[in-house]
Amino acid sequence: xxxxxxxxxxxxxxxxxxxxxxxxxxxxxxxxxxxxxxxxxxxxxxxxxxxxxxxxxxxxxxxxxxxxxxxxxxxxxxxxxxxxxxxxxxxxxxxxxxxxxxxxxxxxxxxxxxxxxxxxxxxxxxxxxxxxxxxxxxxxxxxxxxxxxxxxxxxxxxxxxxxxxxxxxxxxxxxxxxxxxxxxxxxxxxxxxxxxxxxxxxxxxxxxxxxxxxxxxxxxxxxxxxxxxxxxxxxxxxxxxxxxxxxxxxxxxxxxxxxxxxxxxxxxxxxxxxxxxxxxxxxxxxxxxxxxxxxxxxxxxxxxxxxxxxxxxxxxxxxxxxxxxxxxxxxxxxxxxxxxxxxxxxxxxxxxxxxxxxxxxxxxxxxxxxxxxxxxxxxxxxxxxxxxxxxxxxxxxxxxxxxxxxxxxxxxxxxxxxxxxxxxxxxxxxxxxxxxxxxxxxxxxxxxxxxxxxxxxxxxxxxxxxxxxxxxxxxxxxxxxxxxxxxxxxxxxxxxxxxxxxxxxxxxx
Length: 509
Prior knowledge:
12 helices
């Protein structure tokens, strides 16, 4: 026998279920612009039907439905797309840092320009050419000195910028490691809270969204592996166990660098920073040091013309000779002193005699700083009435100096193997700038390609998980009508019961 109040219960279930759907749609609409939010849906099922009691079988055909109820509220998300996004995001993060670093390197070298190192070197060679036209001119010597100072300053400044960029990248690595530890702590806390709520039979969709959003942020910093366990997410960063259920494991910058050196940290901003610091910046710093050292001490072959003095003897014929860079050549010249003295070094190391010349340590010799007449131009000495004098008007050394612009040097090898082994100073520097341009162009190309890949995956992910206001409004209208119909059904049952209770059984009263 049917229950008199069966219809009321059916209408009540419909009202509650449709109300839950409307509230969930409102939640979706409210979070349409919330980062990391996944749209949610109420899962509806027909409630368990009933049968009228009987000894052998139902007394009515079929079963009597009892309405609708919702069994869960779930978020719409696809794990495969999450994995694709995180893998692409790690690669994008690495190329983003590399491209940014190479752009900064291009700014540091500032080539081609009127203020770059190449222009300063050209001015240095030109100053020697001008001095060779009037070798006794004190003004010409001062111009050579000032251009030498400008060259030294350019080397020093460029090297300092490179060192500062290395320090900035190291600081950024430490900052990112702190961010990684902070995210790991938050994920572990969410693992705990999600497990606690699931133990009570709840479905913490919003907390899961927060956890996945944190993992997305983590994937931009380093390549991560996520494994779902009974205790939540287990996350590995490179080869490090970062999160184990509800336990975060703190990592250090040294741990991160060890993973990079072992080849397990291959993506993300951290990998890009370490690669940029230890490959790009270190390489260009080393090549710049090799350029400065070779300019001062690199082996060159020159030809001393006949009539010049060499080792106290006047040459009868031209003499091919290998000397050690600008300093070696300059020390073949004579100063206008009484008696004539051989010139000293033009450049020296700021770290002291005997220390290597680098772009950071190169400086103009103190003797030339104090007296520009310590710059030699002549390679001839004549003796008159037993008195030796440096020949004025001789410009052999000044000519040889200006000719060094087109002279091949033997360059010091670098650990990376980049840079040419033999060539002019200009050709070596051009190879450095050319290498930088190619690397920067390649990084920009890779960055653009990876950006397109990540955007494509994110678009696919949003098509699954993102909130569409048009779709939500359509769903809202559907459930609104369903709720109104359930309310009308409740009113009909109420009117029926009113008739039964108050209108039946009163005949004949």
